[in-house]
Design a protein that fits this description.
alpha+beta; 3 domains; four-stranded mixed sheet; 9 helices; 7 strands; IS1595 family transposase; Transposase_Zn_ribbon
């Protein structure tokens, strides 16, 4: 598609029921075509906007065609790193990294707003080198990152919707991989709907639960694609994994979900 077709495509995706001014909601507009991307000026309040304004594509010089190619690659694979994206769509590594960062920030907003419902199981697991597990398995070592695993479950305790979250040390009993009473309450409050039936899994039950397979799958995914992830950006990668996992579990189109995410106005 050429530039005009790309603009028309993203216009239809952003306003499927026709243009709506982000300021007043009015539907009539003037088109200003003197820039690379057209501006749409509301006939009622004069607010000017574009197909990218307020979305993950805002304030970047990356052409719409590159964003469309990035969406297609993300939807057709099990994830990509910045090096792979840069090579595939023909941009610099820094540009690819920033594009992925914007996608993950938008995913994070969606995941933060999502609450688990029904019967929910929650427990803690950890991401760490395997060799330290020969020593006092319940202690918390510096090289470990403790992660809460929460899921709506069906028959046999199988997860049907998933949330993973990095647990900071101030929510844990000092020196141990166990939550404080307040830490447990915060985890449940952030992840689980108030009306859900909540079950907290201790370490033994968590070890035998199907939820353990979910965090091990997430660890394998991050190691395979990114050679592991530092603590600073760990949550954003956990969010992307859950976004993909939930789309697959609910049999929804990942392409559609990423499309909506890309044109979603903040």
């Amino acid at each position: 598609m050429d530039q005009a077709e790309q603009v028309a495509y993203f216009f239809r995706r952003r306003w499927p029921n026709g243009f709506s001014c982000p300021s007043c909601g009015y539907g009539a507009y003037y088109t200003i075509s003197t820039r690379q991307l057209p501006l749409y000026e509301c006939r009622l309040c004069g607010r000017q906007t574009s197909v990218t304004a307020g979305t993950v594509m805002a304030k970047t010089r990356t052409p719409l065609a590159k964003w469309a190619a990035a969406i297609e690659l993300l939807a057709s694979t099990n994830g990509v790193n910045a090096k792979q994206l840069a090579a595939h769509i023909g941009v610099k590594h820094k540009t690819a990294w920033l594009m992925l960062r914007k996608f993950r920030q938008a995913i994070g907003e969606v995941e933060d707003a999502f609450k688990l419902q029904g019967t929910v199981h929650t427990g803690l697991h950890f991401l760490a080198p395997k060799y330290i597990f020969i020593f006092l398995p319940h202690r918390h070592y510096r090289c470990e990152r403790v992660v809460s695993v929460s899921a709506s479950v069906g028959g046999g305790g199988q997860a049907t919707a998933l949330k993973l979250s990095f647990v900071p040390r101030d929510r844990l009993v000092r020196g141990f991989k166990e939550p404080t009473a307040q830490g447990k309450e915060r985890i449940l409050e952030e992840h689980v709907d108030r009306c859900a039936v909540k079950h907290w899994l201790n370490s033994d039950r968590m070890h035998r639960s199907p939820l353990r397979d979910c965090i091990l799958e997430a660890r394998s995914w991050m190691n395979r694609l990114f050679n592991g992830v530092g603590t600073k950006y760990l949550q954003s990668y956990l969010n992307e994994f859950c976004f993909r996992w939930n789309a697959a579990a609910q049999a929804t189109s990942l392409r559609e979900a990423l499309d909506r995410l890309c044109i979603r106005a903040a």
